Amino acid sequence: MITRMKVLVTDPIDDAGLERLREAGHEVETAYDVTGDALLDAVADANALVVRSGTEVTDAVFEAASDLVIVGRAGIGVDNIDIDAATDHGVIVANAPEGNVRAAAEHTVAMAFASARSIPQAHARLKTGEWAKGDYLGTELNAKTLGIVGLGRVGQEVAKRLDGIGMDLVAYDPYIGEERAERLGAKLVEFEACLERADFLTVHTPLTPETEDLISTEELELMGGGYLVNCARGGVVDEDALAAAVEDGTLDGAAIDVFADEPVSPDNPLLDVDDVVVTPHLGASTEAAQENVATSIADQIDAAFNGEPVMNALNAPSVDKSAFPRIRPYIDLAETAGKVAAQLLDGRISNVEVSYEGDIAEEDIELVTASALKGVFEPLEWQVNAVNAPRIAEERGIEVTESKTRQAEDFQSLVTVTVGNDDESLSVCGTLFAGEDPRIVRIDGYRVDAIPHGQMLVARNYDKPGVIGFIGTVLGENDVNIAGMFNARRSADGGEALTVYNLDDPIPEEVSEKLLADERITDVKYLTLNGTAE
Ligand SMILES: NC(=O)C1=CN([C@@H]2O[C@H](COP(=O)(O)OP(=O)(O)OC[C@H]3O[C@@H](n4cnc5c(N)ncnc54)[C@H](O)[C@@H]3O)[C@@H](O)[C@H]2O)C=CC1
Ligand SMILES: O=C(O)C(=O)COP(=O)(O)O
Questions:
Q1: Is the N end or the C end of the chain the one with fewer CB atoms within 10 Å?
Q2: The pLDDT of residue 251 is above 90
């Protein structure tokens, strides 16, 4: 099983998550607030990195962390993680998209009320002994219009809560259907209409190039009054524009939990405007939410270490937990078939086809195909795993195709990996005996029955008397013991044949020359697969 893995945690997460990682046998190191070179040093021998929003996980981090398997984000937003760089380095990025949704929604509601009733301002004055009752005349949310920009998980929870207190709901989200909005009692409208109609506008999009500064001077002018709440991401709202709009009365107020740069600088213009209520990124900071996200990330890290699917992987194929036991043996089988095919083809690989027949064709096979690609690319000595294999194929212009058919001729399930180029191709078919024992059952059209592991030799020869004996003698003379062999021929007339050997020992280089010196033998290939021959 897995060896002790090191998990580096650079933003505070709940003890329940740390405990779960330790219970699973992993070494957990916490190094909060490390940045720059100190972060690069700390991550150098880590197998997993756990962060919240406080750590910038850049390309340099992946460069420094050669043993990194996964970055776990104990929360939702991953704008602080360079996912492209992670994929290039074959590192999984996973988040915890459910655990803090209610906390974020409740904080949003709290912020809307806080700004509408000036609670923080009145509170601060009363604490200094000032009874400023006459200075505050608030706004009710009841019967006002709530505009929601981004009707995803958090946006929907906010919708439910504020619908419940009698607000009218409009929403702008170009990626969801009208039906979903209607089920929440919200009307889907265009962006401008959402701004114009909202008395309270709340933002719940991720920060992406598309949403950066989504709301700036022009958009705030369209609102022309009312309140803006941002508990999503700082960069979505232009801070200078918002501060100016509240200052000059274009808006009545705002409530902001998130900032373009965090921790926020004392010079941030929003801190100077009295009608802007601020909190230091507290949306997810409840006990329940923190326990949820920390344990979710711990489980996903453990799964990654065990080679199991990572439920919320953002850059890797993930598989339903209940389906994984059925798929797992095919992951290894496809990788092996890919490895064998790549090692047997002489020419360049410019296309890979993975086809599925029988029961396996009913399953979600994205991860199986990625594993087949990993198998194909590994003998080429590319730094590859199932996370970056599809990307590597794309970058190198290798065409990847998949096909599925529920019919299987001779086997319950068959996985075939075909590698080739415009001039030639070679297929390797694998199946599972008794549902779990991997077998190679066809190589380049020859029907074989080979156990794919350890040292193997695949010889092509003319089907003449004494050839097999000759190969056995040469191997024996070189102290290579044959654990098993299978000979296949296309026809019974002395034509071409293919023989697959499982060997107990590595093959010395000169063996190949000796074998090929015999004109009955046309090709010899050595394969090295995982495990050793029995
Ligand atoms: N303040 C805090 O502590 C917390 C902040 N968050 C943040 O809240 C935000 C929302 O989180 P979730 O609801 O879980 O995400 P989600 O992915 O479930 O929903 C985001 C929604 O935004 C929509 N969207 C994307 N681009 C858009 C655009 N240009 N215009 C309008 N809509 C667009 C998407 O279609 C999606 O429906 C994220 O930025 C997340 O990081 C989440 C939890 C806590
Ligand atoms: O989950 C999110 O997106 C959040 O913004 C929460 O951030 P945090 O984990 O509190 O740094």
A1: N
A2: yes
Q: Does residue 351 sit in the same domain as residue 491?
A: yes
Query: Which mutation among 11, 51, 76, 296 tests ligand 1's pocket best, with the greatest number of atoms within 8 A of CB?
Result: 76
Confidence (pLDDT) at 382: 74
Contact criterion met (CB below 8 Å) for 326 and 363: yes
User: What's the whole-number mean pLDDT along residues 469-494?
Assistant: 88
Question: Both 463 and 328 in a single domain?
Answer: yes
Distance CA 312, CA 442 (A): 36
- Other C-beta atoms lying within 10 Å of the C-beta of residue 379: 18
**Per the domain annotation, does 365 fall within a domain?**
yes
Q: Residue 242 — φ and ψ, nearest 5°?
A: -70, -45
As a whole number of angstroms, the distance between CA 308 and CA 323 comes to: 11
Rounded Cα gap, residues 233 and 202, in angstroms = 11
**Which residues lie below 8 Å from residue 391, measured CB to CB, with a gap of 6+?**
87, 88
Phi and psi angles of residue 522, each rounded to the nearest 5 degrees, phi first: -100, -20
Q: Examine residue 377 and state whether it is found in any structural domain, yes or no.
A: yes
The predicted complex's ipTM stands at 0.99
User: Strand (E) positions, 322-371?
Assistant: 351-358
Residues 503 and 359 occupy one common structural domain: yes
Residue 246 burial by Cβ neighbours in a 10 Å radius (0-12, 13-18, 19+) = buried
Domain count across the chain: 3
Whether 122 and 132 have beta carbons less than 8 Å apart is answered as: yes
Do the domain assignments include residue 109?
no
Q: Which ligand sits closest to the CA of 236?
A: 1
Instruction: Indicate which CATH number applies to the domain containing 224.
Output: 3.40.50.720
117 lines ligand 1 (CB under 6 A): no
Q: Is there a single domain that holds both residue 95 and residue 197?
A: no
- What domain range is 14 assigned to? 6-99+288-306
At 364, which CATH number? 3.30.1330.90
Which of 218, 171, 163 shows the shortest CA–CA distance to 191? 171
d(CA 444, CA 44): 44
Residue 468 included in any domain: yes
**Which ligand 2 atom is at minimum distance from the Cα of 75?**
1
In which band, very low, low, confident or very high, does the pLDDT at 2 lie, cut at 50, 70 and 90? low
Average pLDDT value for the chain: 94
Give pLDDT, residue 528: 86
Q: What is the pLDDT of residue 49?
A: 98
Which atom in ligand 2 lies closest to the alpha carbon of residue 100? 1
Question: Is 241 found in the same domain as 143?
Answer: yes
* Residues carrying an active site annotation: 233, 262, 281
Q: Which of 385, 498, 359 minimizes the C-alpha distance to 67?
A: 385
User: Does residue 161 share a domain with residue 137?
Assistant: yes
For residues 59 and 145, state if they share a domain. no
